[in-house]
Predict the structure.
Amino acid sequence: MKWLKEPLVLFILLGAALTLVYSVASGAFAADESKTVSMDASEIELLAANWERQWQRPPTEAELRGLVDARVREEVLYRAAQSMGLDRNDVVVRRRMVQKMELLSQDLATITDPPEADLRAFFEENREDYRVPPRVSFRHVYFNLDSRGMAAESDALAALEELRASDPDEADVSRLGDRFMLAYEYTLRTPIELQQAFGSRFAEAVSELEPGWHGPVPSGYGLHLVEITDRVESNLPEFEQVRERVLVDYERVRRDRANVLLLEGLSANYSIEIDEAAIQARSLEAITGQGG
């Protein structure tokens, strides 16, 4: 698909990044074997700048020396741990390094803004994802099954006749039913919002009702008489209305694609061997265990 084709610059950057990762990694590890820990002017300036951003003032000489001492301590302990192999077979370290590689590729993938034409093409290919759900406004009268028992439905039907025969105000409506723990009136709610508040049966029923009084409609609370006061049908928005959402989704796809490209590029440097027999044997053991 067109929107999955990354700009040429992305491939160039990813390739350069892989080269950089290998060269920097090999150089860094070689440097770590030395017995020199150097804090040059650029690194000291970085420590001071980070302090100033956090505290909104430059560090004093004592504070800056404390930062430098802490950085030297960190480097010495890091090199010692590395020389002892403490970073090997450590799940936390492995996951953190994997995460940093993925973040590197994602940063490269989103280093340039996508062309407007690509965003529009992405929107057209995924337009249904941006469909605005239907919404309904209503008020209701509640009938408590616990307190009314078998009479709840007949009471609701009698009240429905009265409501349809007149045009009651809010006070008249509230006196016909029981106290309800939530609101009596709702404005432009989606089916999902109705389901969260009243349950799926109520949401499905109310979503199909035309303007006017209807019922009784069951919910997880009891029975309801429902008056539909407004309805907005589902619709597909124009690109300009949802551009920010499209951009977020497009960037997410670009980041995911960048991770795939990174893994493919790195995997090409390895011979990957997987013991399929062990997988099959372990899977069979799980099936046999469940069957037993």
The chain has two domains: 2-125+244-270, 135-232. The longest strand covers residues 223-232.
